[in-house]
Amino acid sequence: MAKDAALKTQAGLIGGMVVIYLANNASVLIWNYPFLYCWGQSPASRLYLDWGLPTLYLAAAYIIWRLLRRQLTHAFVGVLVVILIMELPRIFDMMFRLGGSCHG
């Protein structure tokens, strides 16, 4: 029973995110206004500027620690995390801006 409820909740969350993303796409097509990008740009950039560099340092320390322990698989996962963190602003821009503009 609890497992079914968790699956329903997860399916609802995924469905809600898809609906919001499709609404963002429709907003760009109709009004050229990507509301997800425009509304989320300020808090996301603030979070990235405050936490991006310390997270990179933490990931680099994790990679070095795993390499010293000769755990190459974990070190490779750390490298993937570093690449994801460095590319995050560009990925979000590509996913949510969709060629629209926040200025009208």
Describe this structure in a few short sentences.
The protein has 104 residues and is mainly alpha-helical. The protein contains three helices and no strands.
Describe this structure in words.
The protein has 104 residues and is an all-alpha fold. The chain is 87% helix and 0% strand. The protein is built from 3 helices and no strands. Helix 2 runs antiparallel to helix 3 (72-97). The termini are far apart. The model has no long low-confidence stretch (mean pLDDT 86).
Fraction in beta strands: under 5%
Shape verdict: flat
Low-confidence stretches: none
Distance between the termini: 49 Å
Main sheet? Answer: none
Structural class: mainly alpha
Q: Please tally the helical runs, counting DSSP H or I stretches of 4 or more residues.
A: 3
Helix percentage: over 70%
Helix and strand string, N-terminal first?
A: HHH
Q: Would you tell me the overall average pLDDT? A: 86
As a whole number of angstroms, the C-alpha radius of gyration is 19 Å
* Oligomeric state of the chains present here: single chain
Compute the number of strand runs.
0
